[in-house]
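Hi everyone,

Forwarding the result from last night's run.
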Amino acid sequence: MTSGQEMNVEITKHDETVVATPVGEIDLARSPSLRNHLAEILAEKPARLIIDLAQVPYMDSSGVATLVEALQQSRSRDCTLVLAGMQDRVRSVFEIARLDTVFTIVADAAAGMQDDP
């Protein structure tokens, strides 16, 4: 049994904003890798972290938990965390759990760059 799979996360920086774009499904096997990527980004204390989920077709509860943890870490570091580009299937998970009221969710990464998304 493997301990998990590496999650490909594309990172781009724009001034004080970091855009992290995970590619592929976020499930129990891949969420620890995503958690590590996000922790590394937050350790650098960006002003804003946009997690662009446009290339994530599926996310299970472990992926949601990873993003909740990232939100908690971002708040403790005065970093604005924004979720962008959610596909309908992923967005419905957040709506069912009522997390759409907890996270800032925008249509795409460009909208997340705005001063008040």
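The mean pLDDT is 94.

Cheers,
N.
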